[in-house]
């Protein structure tokens, strides 16, 4: 199940940001329904603008954090796929070419007389 394009593990990682988003949303709704500080357009406007801006900033941060987590997981998966020989203990082609170059350069040296 992919919600917003994120896997289940990524959504679990993002829970630390989703909980504060819910708390901020609760207070926005609570202050919209019950106005404990009276009706002052300047004060209420400032109060709601602060809460809504923090909600939006945290939502954007959460989205980009999720994208970064997904990208890091994909990079680890691709690295594991591209280097299967590292786990088996055999040499990669690049390593054998470097070793052959070292061997041939050692053979070219003439012994000192």
TrEMBL record:
Residues 79-113 are annotated as: Disordered. The keyword Transmembrane helix applies. InterPro entries: DUF6684. Residues 91-113 have a biased composition (Acidic residues). The keyword ATP-binding does not apply. This is Cox cluster protein. The chain crosses the membrane at residues 12-34, 46-65. Keywords: Membrane, Transmembrane, Transmembrane helix.
